[in-house]
Amino acid sequence: MNGTLESLLYVDDDADIREIVEMSLGLDGTLRVISSSGGEHALSTMRSERPDLVVLDVMMPGMDGPAILGRMRADPQLRHIPVIFMTAKADPKEVARFRELTAIGVIAKPFDPMALGGQVRALWNSR
Amino acid sequence: MNDRTTEQKMEVARARMAELATKFLVRTDADIAAMRGGLGRLASGDVNGLADIRHLAHRMVGTGATLGFESLSGHARHIEKLTEVFAPGALPDERWRMQVAAEIDALATELGSLRDS
Predict the structure, then answer these.
(1) Handedness of CA A111, A113, A117, A118 (dihedral sign)
(2) Which of A62, A71, A76, B93 is most exposed by smallest CB count within 10 Å?
(3) Fold entry, domain A7-119
(4) CA-CA distance, B53 to B31, in Å (whole number)?
(5) Which of A27, A59, A61 sits opposite B9 (nearest CB)?
(6) A115 CB near a chain B CB, below 8 Å?
């Protein structure tokens, strides 16, 4: 356990999914949720917003989720931020690969928008 | 003032999800046309068509199922799997293009029946 989850950055190239995630995670009113379409914008948003947690879509054009995580871990300002991946390919082999990359967990797509907040908090609390 | 209860927020979220679902169906129509365009580009030797089809299918898999369109998502998953047979930059043969064209047709048929229902 490492503190309270107060802010989260969600990164996905799909604007509709970003909106659904922002709505879902904002339902209980206790979490500040920001989002980014990915790439360098995601990294600069992390530096300016300093979120407690980053949730990354895996497959994005240009810089994919694992590539963004690699950039974060090489950046002294960002290397400490926990990361969760969201993916449609959440098979055990892929989950193990993402954990090796230092992700604290994986959430499978499709997700239940009404249950997403609970999934994120469970992974945060299980670190 | 922002003093909505969680239940009120959930109602707003459900209403917005319904709007996004309608928007998704419209976008899927455009994405199907774009997939067919990608197949056409592959037929004329443009290797970028493969990545375009893969990206469109992948997006449809995740977004479709999240919005409750499991059948569309399933067809898109078949298409995505077909694209994964080849490495990025490959130029699939005509047999593969026919397989993908058939899957795209099935996707379009499913979209049509969802719109009619």
Answers:
(1) negative
(2) A76
(3) Rossmann fold (3.40.50)
(4) 9
(5) A27
(6) no
**pLDDT tens digits, B85-113:** 998 888 999 999 999 999 999 999 999 99
Residues facing A107 on adjacent strands: A86
pLDDT means per 10 residues in chain A (127 residues)? 87 93 89 96 97 96 95 97 93 94 94 92 94
Closest chain B residue to the Cα of A29, Cα to Cα: B6
pTM across the whole model: 0.87
User: Hey, of B2, B22, B59, which one would you mutate to test binding to chain A, going by the most A CBs within 10 A of its CB?
Assistant: B59
Domain with B108 in it: what CATH number? 1.20.120
Q: How far apart are CA B62 and CA B70, in angstroms?
A: 9
Partners of A27 on chain B (C-beta within 8 Å) are 6, 9-10, 13
A93: tokens are 């082999």
